[in-house]
Amino acid sequence: MTTTPSPVQGLHHVTVIASHPQHNIDFYSVTLGQRLVKVTVNFDDPGTYHFYYGDEVGTPGTIMTHFPWPHAKRGTRGNGEVVATAYRMPERSAPYWQARLEDAGFTVQHATRFGAATLTVEDPDGTLVDLIADQDVQAPHPWPNGPVPTEHMLGGFHSVTAWVDDVRSIRALLVGQLGFTEVGHEPDAAAGGTRYRFRGAGAQVGLYVDAVERPGQSAGRSGAGTIHHVALRTRDDAEQAAYMAQLRAAGYAATPVQDRQYFHSIYFRDASGVLFEIATDAPGFPDDEPVEQLGGTLKLPAWFESKRHLIERHVPRIVNREYHTEIGGAQ
Amino acid sequence: MTALPHAGGPTLTAGHDLHDARVACLMVHGRGGSAADLLTLADDLNLSAFAYVAPQADGHTWYPHSFLAPVAQNQPYLEGALARLETALTELAEAGIPAERVAVLGFSQGACLASEFVARRGGRFGALVLFSGGLITLDHTRTLSGTPVFIGNSDRDAHIPLARHEQTVEVLTRQGAQVDARIYPGMPHTIIRDELDAARNLLRDMTFGSL
C-alpha cells in the first residue's frame, strides 16, 4: 500500500523539437532573455544537443528545453499535443515586449485570456510562445546578467496549452490523479474551441495547464516546432514513486524512472494523446557546474564521458551568447 | 504474376521523422495483433532518437499455421511476409538508415518472423529483439557479425516450446550474434517489464553506435 502523494505543484519543464540550434539559442536566450543554463545532449540520442533555458539557476517552472535536430522537418500543430508555452510577463511590460519581439522580426498576435492581456509569437521553428500579463511575476531566481532590463524580465512559466478532442480524459488525469483544480473555461477563438484551465497546487510559477477542446479537429504531427512533452513537478523520488504506482493502478502505462541527470523522470500518455512527464525538483542544474558557469560548456553524464570526443565532433558548433564561448563542432 | 501476400498493406510510423532519424525500429506485430498496437511500445521505450516503422499484415496474421508447421503449409504467406520486411528495410536504407542502425523487434508470431528474416538475411543489424518467439527454420549459415539479440520466452508457453527457444539461441549464437537469452518462469504470452528494459538498453546502445 503506497501513500497518496501530495498534489502536483504545476509545471516543471516543457520539451520541444527544434531545428537550427543557434537560431534556437538566439531566440530564447537573447530575445526572450532566458538563461541557457545547461548544454548537454539528448540522453537517448547523444548525437543531438539538449538545451535547457530558465531563470538564473533553472528553477522548476521556468525550464524550457529543446532538442535541436538541425535538418528536422516542420511538424504540424493539432489535437493530442501541447501546442504552446506561456511565460509570465509584468503587466506594464506589454508595449516593451511587443517592440522587442517586432524588432527581432517576429509578428505579435494579441488576445485576452481569462482577463489577462496575452501576446503570442511563433519561435523560429513555429512553436507558439505566449506572454501573459500577470502581477508579481518575478522569477524565483532572476538572471542578473540577462539582456532584458529587470523591470521587464519574464518570470518563468504561466501555463501550457494542450489541444484535445475531448477535455474529459485530461481532466480525469489532472484533477482525478494529480491534484489539480479546475478553475474555469471560456471560448478561445484563435484555437477554435473552449479553453479549460487547471491549476496546480504550487505558488506563483508554472501553475496552469490549459486544454482547448476542439472536437473533430485533426491531430498534430511530430516534427520541428512541436512540443514533445510537458513535465509536471513533484518534490522528490518518493513522491514520484507513489505517483508511478498510483498512475499504473489507474491504467496509465507509466515508464520506469529514468535518470535525466538534473532530475528524475517518469513518462505516461493521456488518452487525449498528450505525453506527460513527472519530474523531481532535485538534483537541479548546479549539480555539475557552478551557478556562475551554467551553460558555458558541453556537460555530459558520467556514462557518456568516454564518448566525449565523438560527441563533440558530431554536434554542430554553437555559441553561448552569455559567455561568447563556442561549443561543439570539434575537428 | 500476382503480388505476394502482405505486399500492399499499410505501414504505420511513430516517433522521430524517418528522414531525419539516424536509427529506426522495425516492429513486427503478432497473430491477431496490429501495427497500431505494437507501436504503443514506442511510448514505453521513450527513445526520442528512433523512427518506429510497423508494417501491417493482411488479415492480422503473417501466415496461417504455427511456425513449427512444415514451411510449405505457410506458403505463400511466409514468403510474402519476409518480402514485406525486406521492402521495409530497403525503404529505411533509402531514407538513410542502413541495417546496422535498424532494430528489428517482434512479438509472438512477429518475433518468429523477425528472427527468421534476420537469420536468413545475415549481416549486422542494430539489434534483434524477440518477445515470445523463435526461429521458423534452423539451417541458417550466414554471419550476423555481432548483431546484439534479446530473446525472452516463458518456460511454459503454449505457442513457443522451450526447446525452440534453446535452438534459436544456439543457431543465432552460431551465426555470430551476441545473444541475451532470458527464460521467465510462468510468464503468460505477453511482454513484461524486464524484457522492455532489456530492449530499451539495446536500442539506446544503438544511438551511440550511430555517432
From TrEMBL, chain A:
Coiled coil: none annotated. It holds the Pfam family Glyoxalase. Residues 10-134, 156-281 form the VOC domain. Gene3D superfamilies: 2,3-Dihydroxybiphenyl 1,2-Dioxygenase, domain 1. Keywords: Dioxygenase, Oxidoreductase. InterPro entries: Extradiol_RC_dioxygenase (IPR052537), Glyas_Bleomycin-R_OHBP_Dase (IPR029068), Glyas_Fos-R_dOase_dom (IPR004360), VOC_core (IPR037523). One of its GO terms (molecular function) is dioxygenase activity. This is Glyoxalase/bleomycin resistance protein/dioxygenase. It comes from Deinococcus maricopensis (strain DSM 21211 / LMG 22137 / NRRL B-23946 / LB-34). The lineage of its organism: Bacteria, Thermotogati, Deinococcota, Deinococci, Deinococcales.
Automatic annotation (TrEMBL), chain B:
Residues 27-204 form the Phospholipase/carboxylesterase/thioesterase domain. Keywords: Hydrolase. It comes from the Bacteria. The keyword Cell cycle does not apply. InterPro entries: AB_hydrolase_fold (IPR029058), LYPA1-2/EST-like (IPR050565), PLipase/COase/thioEstase (IPR003140). GO terms for molecular function: hydrolase activity. The keyword Hydrolase applies. Pfam families: Abhydrolase_2. Belongs to the AB hydrolase superfamily. AB hydrolase 2 family. PANTHER family: LYSOPHOSPHOLIPASE-LIKE PROTEIN 1, LYSOPHOSPHOLIPASE-RELATED. This is Phospholipase/Carboxylesterase. The lineage of its organism: Bacteria, Thermotogati, Deinococcota, Deinococci, Deinococcales.
